[in-house]
Amino acid sequence: MPFVRDILGRSDYAIISELIEPHSRVLDLGCGEGELLQWLAENKAVDGRGIEIDPPKVQRAIARGVSVYQSDIDQGLAGYPDDSFDYVILSQTLQETRRPLDVLRDMLRIARHAIVAFPNFGHWAVRLSLLTTGRSPRSRCFPFEWYNSPNIHFLTIRDFEALAREQRWIVERKMFLAGHRTRVVLANLTAEVAVYQVRK
Length: 200
Fold this sequence. Notes:
Blueprint: H1 11-19, E1 25-29, H2 35-44, E2 47-52, H3 55-63, E3 68-70, E4 85-91, H4 100-110, E5 111-119, H5 124-133, H6 157-167, E6 170-178, E7 181-182, H7 187-190, E8 193-199
Parallel strand pairs: 1-2, 1-4, 2-3, 4-5
Antiparallel strand pairs: 5-8, 6-7, 6-8
């Protein structure tokens, strides 16, 4: 199981950076302070844009020279015509959206490829926590109490793959992370984070 390096302190960013082709048009949904977009612009010469709901994060992203605007991705991406981008990124934000299926469909409408990374609620530590404590699970990927968690939907790798089959999306690439190592065997049980590249 190969070791995955960090970019900006996150292994999923390292995987995402490998998937993005140089000089691509990229939209990052829930981009935070724009760190990944800045890295992609500097290292892969992408034409990057971002959407972020938190105004202070938007201001910090703009201060670092990233093109970001404040909006709620749950309100839709109707302002973008079809095929506006090569890639749309949604990294560890899918579980925080109110209408994840609508967001995913919009991503695949406006871009040739969607890259989705999410924490795997099927991980053994999450299962064990629920079994042994009888309380809402907490783990390294889910450190919040039930009442202050930003996570609304708790999906697993199997859930995402079932959705992709139902929607007839093509999974182009998938990688799984446990710490800094990729996991392939029994991914739904051993992976903490999943990264998928899909298209229609």
